[in-house]
Amino acid sequence: MTNENVIDTLNTLIETCKDGEYGFRTCAEHVKSTQLRQVFTSRADECRQGATELQALVTRLGGKADTSSSVSGTLHRGWVNLKAMLSGDSDQAALNECERGEDAALARYRDAIKEALPSDIAAVVQRQYEGVKKNHDQIRRLRDQTRSTT
Fold first, then answer.
1. How confident is the model over 90-117, as pLDDT tens digits?
2. What is the three-state SS of the chain?
3. Overall pTM surpassing 0.70 (yes/no)
4. What's the CATH fold of domain 3-149?
5. What CA–CA distance (Å, rounded) separates 141 from 98?
6. CA distance between the termini of the chain
7. 24 vs 28, 45, 98, 124, 133, CA distance in Å?
């Protein structure tokens, strides 16, 4: 895998992290539950830290690290805002949208793991992938708990 391909893969993951950060923050603004607001804010911070770690790798490789989210992430946040407005800032709607976002993140990380990345970079990507899986599972559990109480 060329250095340029590694940088492209990392920049895709940076966009994914930024999508997660902004998506979780958007959802935190719309939920009524203090617990969910804390969970979403914490997840947003973790996504920001993940992006920062990947940006450092891109810089180390001599590339220009992405600093923004993807177009699809921006569209998703617009959908979250619209859905929240129409559903009265439903916690359930926010959890559903967060899970959809985490589904997309998992797919991007799975694609990156399949790449022939240098071993040190592959280890970072694998560790972050495990974190995305943990986030996804937590959001799914919270979604299911919220669904069963409404």
1. 788 888 888 888 998 999 999 999 999 9
2. CCHHHHHHHHHHHHHHHHHHHHHHHHHHHHCCCHHHHHHHHHHHHHHHHHHHHHHHHHHHCCCCCCCCCCHHHHHHHHHHHHHHHHHCCCHHHHHHHHHHHHHHHHHHHHHHHHCCCCHHHHHHHHHHHHHHHHHHHHHHHHHHHHHHHC
3. yes
4. Ferritin (1.20.1260)
5. 12
6. 50
7. 6, 9, 7, 22, 15
How far is the C-alpha of 19 from the C-alpha of 66, rounded, in Å?
Answer: 12
Amino acid of residue 31 = V
CB 16 within 8 A of CB 70: yes
In contact, 54 and 17? CB cutoff 8 Å: yes
Domain boundary assignment for the chain: 3-149
Taken as a whole, the chain contains a residue count of 150
Query: How far does Cα 28 stand from its chain's mean position?
Result: 14
